[in-house]
Structure formats: C-alpha cells, structure tokens
Amino acid sequence: MRSEDELNRVIALYSDMIKRICLIHLKNHADTEDIFQGVFLKYVLSSVVFENDAHEKAWFIRVTINACKDLLKSFFTIVPLILLKCMNKLQLKFLKRIRQLLKQFYDCLKNIVRSFTYIIMKVIQLQKSVRFWEKM
C-alpha cells in the first residue's frame, strides 16, 4: 500500500491526463469521476514497482483505458429513465402479443388433439369390430 504523499504526487501529475482519457472514451462526467477514483484506488492498493516515470505514466494510461473499456462493455451500464419507460411499454406490448400468439397456438393445438383423439377412437372401434367379426 502506498503512502498519502505518493498518492498526492501522482494525483498532481496525472489527474488531468486521466480525466481527459476518461472523457474521450466515456463522454460522461459521472462515469469519468468513477473511473478516476477507481484508477487511483488501484494505484494505492497495487504493489507494482515502477522502473521510471515513463513506466508509471504508461501504467496509469493503460489502467485508465482498461477501466473505461470495462465500464463500456459492462452489463450494468446506466440506462436513461426515459429509455427504460419506453422499453417497459414495448415489453408490455411484446408480452401481450406473445400471449395472444400462445393462445392461438393453444387453440389450434387443442383442435389437433381433439381431431387426433377422434381418429384414434374410430380406429379402436374399428379394431374391436374386426375382432368381433373374426371370432364369428
């Protein structure tokens, strides 16, 4: 774990760069702040020993870009409320349509089963009558 002095030094050096990278990738200030905090938290908790300033800077750039990509491909990204309301309406319409189609399918299937049952019953009756006539 790194000291507070080290953290203050890297924040002074790299904070603007990290915010710019985040804004370029995310185009959102709230997500930028989240990634910004996450990158410096990773730095504080990491035990990486940097060879020089260029290595340290490259590490910050890479960690920032990876964190942005992880956020963008995350399943739990934030969806605007208006979009959620529209999605709910579309989902309800979709579910109603599915329900209608299933009912139609069920009615059709019910008719097929009835017809099949009727045919089977006729075959069974015919078979019984043939057996009856064979016995005579």
Explain what this protein looks like in three dimensions:
By secondary structure, the chain is an all-alpha fold. The chain has two domains: 4-73, Rna Polymerase Sigma Factor, Chain: A (Orthogonal Bundle); 79-136. The chain is built from four helices and no strands. The protein has helices at 4-26, 29-45, 53-73, 81-135. Helix 1 (4-26) packs antiparallel against helix 2 (29-45), helix 1 (4-26) packs across helix 3 and helix 2 packs across helix 3. The N and C termini lie far apart (101 Å).
Characterize the quaternary organization of these chains: single chain
Strand content: under 5%
The residue ranges in which pLDDT falls below 50 over 5 or more consecutive positions are: none
According to DSSP, the number of beta strands is 0
CATH architecture of the largest domain: Orthogonal Bundle
Shape: elongated
Mean pLDDT: 86
Distance between the termini: 101 Å
**Domains counted in the coordinates: how many?**
2
Question: What fold name goes in the CATH topology slot of the largest domain?
Answer: Rna Polymerase Sigma Factor, Chain: A
Tell me the structural class.
mainly alpha
The largest β sheet comes out as:
none
Query: Can you count the helices?
Result: 4
Give the H and E element order. Answer: HHHH
Helix content: over 70%
InterPro entries: RNA_pol_sigma70_r2, RNA_pol_sigma_r2
Protein name: Sigma-70 region 2
Domain RNA polymerase sigma-70 region: 12-73
Pfam family, one: Sigma70_r2
